[in-house]
Structure formats: structure tokens, C-alpha cells
Amino acid sequence: MNSKTCDSGAAHTSIDISSIVHEPYCKIKRERREGAMIHLEGEREEKEKWSWYCTILMVGVPM
Q: Which of 17, 33, 48, 60 could in theory staple to 4 by disulfide, Cβ–Cβ 3.0 to 4.6 A?
């Protein structure tokens, strides 16, 4: 089971990271992992820049 949550920053919204990555208008520019933490930075098609500080907990799933 994958438990993936993202904090979008000021909005403090919990987001399913897998749905974000697969949305066609979201393009991941950079990804940095620090242990169980992941930083995602990207850009929407309308050039709106966004970034998330994400916590990813993976249980029983191979990397």
C-alpha cells in the first residue's frame, strides 16, 4: 500500500502525488529525495510555477 501526501505550502492541502504526476498539464522539472521526503518542482502548461514538499511512505512496494 502506498501512502502519498503532499503539502502544497500556504494552502496546506493534502494531495495525491500519483494523480499530480500523471496529469498531462503538470510537468515535473526537478525531483529531489531526502530519505522518505521528496521535493517536487514543476510547471503547469500556463507557465504557473508550483512546488510541493511531499512526504512519501511506501510499504511493501519495490522502488
A: 17
In a domain, residue 44? The reply is yes
What pTM, to 2 d.p., does this model score? 0.30
pLDDT digits (tens, 9 = 90+) for 5-36: 454 443 334 455 555 554 445 566 777 777 76
Q: Into how many domains does the chain fold?
A: 1
Q: Read out DSSP for the chain? A: -EEEEEE-STT--EE-HHHHHT-TTEEEEEEEEETTEEEEEEEETT--EEEEEEEEEESS---
Q: Is residue 51 part of a domain?
A: yes
63 occurs within a structural domain:
no
